[in-house]
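Ticket reopened. Same input as before:
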Amino acid sequence: MKRKNIFSLLLIIGLLSIALVACGPKATETAAPAAEATEAPVVEEPTEAPAEKFTIGISNPFISSEYRTQMIAELIEVNKEYMDQGITNELVIESADTDVAGQIQQLQNLMAKNVDAILVNPGDVNGLNATLEEAVSKGIIVISVDQELDVPNVYNVGIDQKEWAKTSAQWLAEKMGGTGNIVEIEGFPGHPANVARMNGVDEVLANYPDIKVLAKDTGKWDEATGQQVMSNFLAAYPNLDGYWTQDGMAIGALQAVMAANPAKFPIGVGEGRCQFLKLWQDVLKDHPDFDTIAVANPPGVSPTGLRIAVHMLMGEKVDETKLGGVNGLSFVIPVPVVITGDNLQEGLDICKDKPDAYLLDGIMTDQEVVDAFFK
Amino acid sequence: MKRWSWRYLVNRYPAFFPLILLVISIVVNAILQPNLLSLEMINNNLRVFMPMLLLAVGQTFVMIGGGIDISVGGIVSIVNTILATQVGLTGTPETMWKFVFLVILAGLLAGALNGFFIAILRLEPIITTYATGFLYAGLALFILPNPGGGIPQKISEIYRTTTPLGIPLAIYIIVIILLIWWLIRSTRFGRYLYAVGGNAQAAYETAVPVRTIVFSTYVISGLFSAFAGIAITMLSGSGNAEIGAGMILTSITAVVIGGTAFSGGVGGVAGPMMGAITLGLIQNIVSFSHISTWWETLVKASIIVAALAAPGIIDLFRKKGTRI
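Engineering reply: fixed in the latest deploy. New output:
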């Protein structure tokens, strides 16, 4: 049977080429590092041990948001500082929309690239645990940014999501004089940050028994969905006194209020985005007594995490008494900016030369990081 | 047609073109990542590709039979959430295996439901499985509303790090699937499957049990979706009702890259398995080629589009040139 022969021949060719490839790199292995050495001396080179540069890897599984875009851009910028000082190499960035398996692949690739530290913005609370532990066991410093993980020896850097939500909830409750009917628009139900935030809101509202939560719905952290949900609420409860919402959905909610244009605007919570501050300014023209609050959710926690990683790589000792969180390894970063009616102009000044999508931000300086967390 | 001609090879062996793609991907990836073919890397990569590979195998049966299964992601999510909630991070191996058995049954049941709608009630496969996919995803969300839970790390390690006789576990799974496929192909079921996918009406007229065959393809797809769900749960060790959502279109892409056509009646299991591995390797290639972050998605998508279009483009050029 000739046909069978062709197939087996093809198989053999296939296997041979696989085998060839298997041998190929080994032969060139000796040559390759020599050629690459000039541009990226990643591997330990004992001859110039003191001048050895560190390579830091980034793993990010979600790209379609201004938060992540700003985060990556800032990471590159801050790393540039260290590159100019001869401390680090170019960042190795793994950033694409992907699922748990994809992020595990990202992390494995970072390990294969021999990075010294990994900053990971985890897309799943537990799904990366085993892979991150593998990285730790290879001597890599692993820092989870923006989302706290409970993995031994994995550090966390981020704001306290619960406190973050409490700030605006407290403002809302006080502004309403501790009484009235409100609605809540939350992010993804079940997302850890959303759960922490809603717990914070509940905690604050527990102190104000006269504030009634009439309804609660998800706006999926999406402007358009937020707007639709708010429109529905306004139709159902025309005499609404206030609403609590967060990131991304606040612009939609405010636009819904403006469209419905009720006699009395409900008191609402805003977000720390330039577009929102500009909208706020517009509303003030027709409603001079309008007030809201914008609490920054800073992408800058990641570059701050990068600074922490660099200092750890340089052998400086972390003052563990300054750390907190679920596994006692969390660097809690204070919220850098809170904007209310009193300091709206300050916020608008920040936004003057920024795109609408810019999020109010703050990156701790090198010195601040050392003072706050290192011995 | 000459036996060595391009068209002959492509038509006679649906796995021929995917094999070329796979070899190219391996070569390119190995050039960019010299340690790619170390045992550790092979294991690391295959354990990540395995869930998609299993899903592609199930999808292949459905697509050879002329259908399509969009509910696979929902089934993966159900399996994942059942294991994550019922076994838990502190569960015993016995509970784990008990629930592995149970989720396989769940997968079969979900597949049977699809099969019932499509083979018995004669509903359109794409709409039906789109709808049941929501049903399954919704059920998964009901089982586990918040991401969390999981399986004990020890059990997860079985999947992640076992290399019997020094060979990664995934290789054994691939070989077993290929063996079973070769057995199935030569059975009556195998021949019927191609007949139904090629021309259901003609198959029906020649007394092929079309309903049974179509029904069974969805049950098989459900079964492999369950396997994929078990694999991804053991890979990640955690539960998330959204876990299967992103896998649906990728599984179909893997099958099509693997030389199994939407029109049904052609293809095999080997091609889609290679397709799934190729898709994973493309991600590695993009990652190791130091492309600027903002370009990564575009470059990756372009490679996939090129891989999908390649057979058609080659055909086009061959038609213009001299015929062999």
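Chain A touches chain B through 47 residues (CB under 8 Å). The two ends of chain A are 77 Å apart (CA to CA). Please confirm and we'll close it.
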